[in-house]
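Example record

One chain of 482 residues, shown exactly as stored in the release files.
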Amino acid sequence: MAESDQRKPQPHGLMICFPLQGHINPFVWLALKLASKGFIITFVHLESVHYKLAKAHAHAGDDFFSEARRSGLDIRYATMPDPFPLEFDRDLNFDYYWETMLREFPAIVDHFVSNLIRSSESDPLQLPTFLVTDTVYSSWPLDIATKYKLLNVSFWTQPALLFTMLYHLDLLSLHAHFPCKDNIEEEINYLPGVESINTRDLMSSLREAESQGIVMKFLAKGFTGVKRADFVLLNTVFELESQTLNALNKFQPNYAIGPINFTKNLPTNTVRTSLRSESDCTKWLESKSPGSVLYISFGSFVQMSKQDIEEIAYALQLSQVDFIWVVRDGVVSASADANVLPVGYESEIKERGLIVPWCDQVMVLSNPAVGGFLTHCGWNSVIESMWCGVPMICYPLMFDQPANRKLVVEDLKIGIDIRDHGKSVDRNEAAAKINNFMSSNRLREESHKVKTTLRRAMEVDGSSEISFENFVHDLKAKIYAI
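Predicted structure tokens for this chain:
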């Protein structure tokens, strides 16, 4: 090897993860995949996230990437504080927490990166060369990357449809659809790469009632910065959103690398990512016939009304289907841990229903007994359901979920709605929908087609794998050109 080749820096990525479950999962998999390509990775969790992970996986130790290193991957693990003590309830004080983060967190990141670089100066060839952050992380990634001469990689963990909405906020504003009036329904047909979308399916933060909230403040700043990122990764599949991705490419090159959570042939995939302890549903599922079980989960974060929970509970009872229902603490209110189900409900459903506080969702969805998923339509849940070929009943609540519902029900035709837009759940209507859904061969056939598409995309010659290899090539070329 020539002397000049020996002196090249070893590509070293600093990854700072957004502290919510739906963002942690794809970030960890991206870290493993980059490390499998020979990159050094320093993966950073907030101390509050590390605390939750350690509590949920007490046997896993303090370094969640130790097994990855034993398998040959060079992943270093670090933690970073946020402006609050560990005992501060971040969920209960959501807006105050994120307002403070928006104001104070950039300085904490700056201090962390400065110390990391200073500690690496004895071996300049291992200095960080690129920064990977979540697109929603405001505008500080651009500032940090510029200050420390790092390439700026922005990772969007949701579909391209959502990315396009936020990328073209100027167009939405021009047509008076940002902020969008709460009660209007109009077709939007001017977004590049989006044939048509109804205002009811816009991201909830774009609507007037939420447009001044903390979520939109983060997203607006984040998309100011992402337009100057060196690389944009999206956790989606080209075949599912080809028109949107092609249109985005005209404004900024992007790489569709999803579903990253299902990367194959890695030396290890045992990194702990769940912020909650998981119940094992395997034995219960083994007692059920193929395709007979409806799985229900409304994600790790969003809240719903107690009335809708009760209507869904009674709908399940009326439908007579077998079901597993994840009823986590805080599903109605961040401060309420009491049982939100009707009094005596669990004894009434007996062996037909299993109520758990949390579970391994992929393990459940991949079980042959599961024939459907009643979901809030968070993107992680949608991708996992598609990967397993399980059709969905959609109950979108906020954030990205209305737009994800559109992809599932209207574009891909692999799901139905549990309720009409803007209405509460009605137990009798929901029960009838559940029964029709569980017996629908059409939905199963369409779901199988989408499953095949996703799995082909992750093969060696699939679109997502090729896109990832192109990203690796382009990233290394830019690192070595610096």
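Notes: Confidence is low (pLDDT under 50) at residues 1-5.
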